[in-house]
Specification:
- The protein has about 180 residues and is mainly alpha-helical.
- Among the domains are: about 30 residues, no CATH class; about 100 residues, no CATH class.
- The protein has 5 helices and 3 strands.
- α2 packs antiparallel against α3 and α2 crosses α4.
- The protein is extended and about 80 Å long.
- It starts with 8 loop residues before the first helix and ends in an 11-residue tail after the last helix.
Amino acid sequence: MEVVKRGAQQELTDHLNSTDPTGNIQFTYEEEEKGTLPFLDTLLVRKGDGSVKLLVYRKSTHTDQYLNFQSHHPLHQKLGVIRTLMDRCNAVVTEDQDKELETQHIKRALMRCGYPEWTFQKVEQQRRRKKTEKTKNSKQQEEKARGTQNVTNSSVCFSRSCGAAKCCKLKTHGMQIQQPSHV
């Protein structure tokens, strides 16, 4: 996607189309209508202050037909439909009020396809659990990184007669012991 000044669209489009001698790739352009511009599955909406917000875009021919809950597909695939639509909502829609409207639209559409309320709750529960695990893993990685910042390398002489006992004692204090291969 490229935003260009009015009047320069055709010139840019012609230039881009001339770069492919085979003619297999054809560029087109769309102009903003009533402050909106569809792009892939997003709808760019120009607000009164000139800023842009994003919504999920559906063509006028979109039917909201999704995998029917009564079908003989595994449950994880049915829950995946909910998860995918909710992920798109969270990734595309920029304002909280619009996210709420999109979430309601998704629920209505899927309920018409037979999805019970508990499926939405289960997906939300899985999302929260995954987010908690991600936060926990991130904290563990930070702690691990902090713990290794103060590590220094030390050399310890090792002999068969007294080395093993000393190694065990040093290891309990968090030291890493490297034994020479010739011992």
